[in-house]
Design a protein that fits this description.
The chain is an alpha/beta fold and 315 residues long. It contains 13 helices and seven strands. The longest helix is centred in the last third of the chain and has 18 residues.
Length: 315
Amino acid sequence: MYEKFYKLQCKPFALTPDPRFIYLSDQHAQGLATLEYAILNDAGITLLTGEVGAGKTMLTRRLLEGLDDSCEIGVLTNTQREFRDILPWVLRAFHQPVNPGEDSVGTYERLIAFLEKTFEQGRRVLLMIDEGQNLDEQALEELRLLSNLNVGSNMQLQLILVGQPELLKMLKQPRLRSLAQRIAVEHQIAPLSFDETREYISHRLKVAGCPFPIFDSLAFAAIFYHSRGIPRLINTICDLALAFGYGQGRRVIGPGIIGDVVHSKNLSLHHLEEIPRPEEADRIHNELRESAGYDICLFEELQPANGTPARERSA
């Protein structure tokens, strides 16, 4: 809708993952390097956590795309609280047949046979479990038992457990300390900083063929303040801001339009109240109140003592 107006070749802030738009901040690059290190150095269990929309899926996809045929990969994404008897799900993840009515002993033996055969071929076996926060304690304990398949120096099965911060809280419980102690490598993805947020937005616009600046400096600050630097929420705000800007005929988007977006997105942004706002966001907000005379929380010009707006804006 707005692509032609802003002379874009495609939508730069679509919520669906697109490898063309991958932006690796320093911490995302470190996370990718950590995952690669874990695989190459035979880490038994690796933990990757981050807030919803922080970029976990992007990192894991980039990781899997970089692995060659020497690695047999299985992915479990349909985790849930009632997840029980994990062995059949593991076999399915590796495209192994599951025999109806087979008891757990038979399933276990077939998994062992698969792992041993793959190991003898000189190939790694990697199982990635996404949305790990949906698993209950029993399912997590079953994952710990899977790690018992690794005997001595023979690493037959590597696990990468991916989830939201709730997963990290679960693993800190005393009842799960045995599993936590087996986590060899872990990385937590933090939200983007202000500079990274600005670079992230500019990078996606550049990839989309943007020929001129669209967001002004106060808009960048407002996006960071209200998204808390979470990439998916940055995309949500920026995409709708372009639509609002197009509707208002504005080539340059200022904080006023960001305010319209934030006020219209109560449903998707309300959960951020539970996430502490970065100190950097509050610092930037206070600096802008003093230097630019603009409140990016209230989206309004501040009136100095003489009653004249500190800065006249068109957006």
